[in-house]
Amino acid sequence: MAAPQDVHVRICNQEIVKFDLEVKALIQDIRDCSGPLSALTELNTKVKEKFQQLRHRIQELEQSAKEQDKESEKQVLLQEVENHKKQMLRKTTKESLAQTSSAITESLMGISRMMSQQVQQSEEAMQTLANSSRTILDANEEFKSMSGTIQLGRKLITKYNRRELTDKLLIFLALALFLATVLYIVKKRLFPFL
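Structure tokens predicted for Vesicle transport protein SEC20 isoform X2:
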């Protein structure tokens, strides 16, 4: 029958291999991720959790190795622990690369959002300018129309002023003719011999 220490060592080794495979799968998922930033962040968090679990199991294995009675088994287990640590170090580098790429992606998405907002603001400014230009053109047309109306009014007033002068002159001549006629009639009636 296997000693409890041996069973514990085997379980630790199996869990280390399991966590190692899970970390590799998650790193591949991060590489393949083209989705939103939240999905990338979630994958990154899962990788960190698996790394913590992997570190914990490696430490347990190291502790079990130190507790071994036989020096040869102790050395073999410590060698395995070192190999696992080296593999974890390479994966930690991949994790930091994944975090860096995540940060870069987040930064690029932020820049993209800012550029989108700038484009939107520019479009709104262009629309405002177009509306202002249209309003100015409408006002210009209205001023031209009013200018034409004012000129027509000026011509009419000048014409009525001339007409008024002509009418005054005609009234004066008619009055003079009337008075001349009245005087003629009065002269013929009162002084027929003259």
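DSSP finds three helices and no strands in the chain.
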